[in-house]
């Protein structure tokens, strides 16, 4: 069979994956804290027709002759460029400026990480939770952050310090703090859905940021650029079509070979 046919098949598979990633990016264009994906390709093995030879006193060198055997998926990267900040005026909407992730604890006690800062009060005792009911945790990642339901007022500072006035007045309580975490390789984090990330073997261990920057009353939007995604969609579509053309052309050649017997 013709090598070009199998090369075309590999190209079609890769561009299908690229379209899948583009579709996911576009679907999450309005998802708070979403980080877009990117697909990269690399070539497959090359079949060597003849090797290289060095120069001699009477003859120059000859380059190797190789035929490529298609393309393969090299990586699917998560792009961590910051998204635009949308002002909401809601004190429990928190946007991270720069690097860092909020820590939330799921019902199983696992610590997960997120850039989505839309938080809410638990109906029971004023614990701060995300949209799935996972507790926002502070220093050490153990104790859920809490603002008593009867507090007269509260605010969240740029360094993550939670301040509130207890019921009946008195001294402002500043004993709790939102701690942002970072990783040596954020690109190695695993997406687990729900705007959440999980440590992986290649992300490094979560470490507390020394100078966190949090903006209360705002949310970080998705970093998806629709104009870029539509352009990449056109490129992927044309690449897919070109690879299908390779397959149909190879098929026509094979048909001609079969017809030689007639």
UniProtKB/TrEMBL annotation:
InterPro entries the UniProt entry points to: Flag_bb_rod_N, Flagellar_basal_body_rod_CS, Flagellar_FlgE/F/G, Flg_bb/hook_C_dom, FlgE/F/G-like, FlgF, LlgE_F_G-like_D1
Localization per record: Bacterial flagellum basal body
Pfam families cross-referenced by the UniProt entry: Flg_bb_rod, Flg_bbr_C, LlgE_F_G_D1
Start and end residues of each Flagellar basal-body/hook protein C-terminal domain: 215-260
One GO term describing the cellular component: cytosol
GO biological process terms held by the UniProt record: bacterial-type flagellum-dependent swarming motility
Main subcellular location: other
Keywords from the UniProt entry: Bacterial flagellum, Cell projection, Cilium, Flagellum
SUPFAM superfamilies per record: Flagellar hook protein flgE
Domain Flagellar basal body rod protein N-terminal: 5-35
Location of the Flagellar hook protein FlgE/F/G-like D1 domain: 95-164
Protein family per UniProt: Belongs to the flagella basal body rod proteins family.
Protein name per UniProt: Flagellar basal body rod protein FlgG
Species the sequence originates in: Schinkia azotoformans LMG 9581
Taxonomic placement: Bacteria, Bacillati, Bacillota, Bacilli, Bacillales
């Amino acid at each position: 069979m013709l090598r070009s046919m199998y090369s075309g098949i590999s190209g079609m598979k890769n561009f299908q994956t690229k379209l899948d990633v583009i579709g996911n990016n576009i679907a999450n264009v309005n998802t708070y804290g979403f980080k877009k994906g990117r697909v990269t390709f690399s070539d497959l093995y090359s079949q060597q027709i003849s090797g290289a030879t060095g120069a001699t006193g009477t003859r120059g060198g000859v380059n190797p002759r190789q035929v490529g055997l298609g393309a393969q998926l090299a990586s699917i990267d998560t792009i961590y460029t910051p998204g635009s900040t949308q002002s909401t005026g809601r004190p429990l909407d928190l946007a991270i400026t720069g690097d860092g992730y909020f820590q939330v604890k799921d019902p199983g006690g696992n610590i997960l990480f997120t850039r989505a800062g839309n938080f809410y009060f638990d109906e029971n005792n004023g614990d701060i939770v995300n949209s799935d009911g996972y507790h926002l945790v502070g220093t050490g990642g153990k104790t859920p952050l809490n603002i008593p339901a009867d507090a007269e007022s509260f605010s969240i500072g740029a360094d993550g310090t939670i301040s509130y006035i207890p019921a009946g007045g008195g001294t402002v309580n500043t004993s709790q703090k939102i701690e942002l975490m970072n990783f040596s390789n954020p690109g190695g984090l695993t997406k687990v859905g729900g705007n959440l990330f999980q440590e992986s073997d290649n992300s490094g261990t979560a470490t507390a940021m020394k100078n966190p920057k949090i903006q209360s009353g705002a949310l970080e939007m998705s970093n998806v650029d629709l104009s870029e995604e539509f352009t990449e969609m056109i490129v992927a579509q044309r690449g897919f079509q070109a690879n299908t053309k390779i397959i149909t052309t190879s098929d026509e050649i094979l048909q001609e070979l079969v017809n030689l017997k007639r």
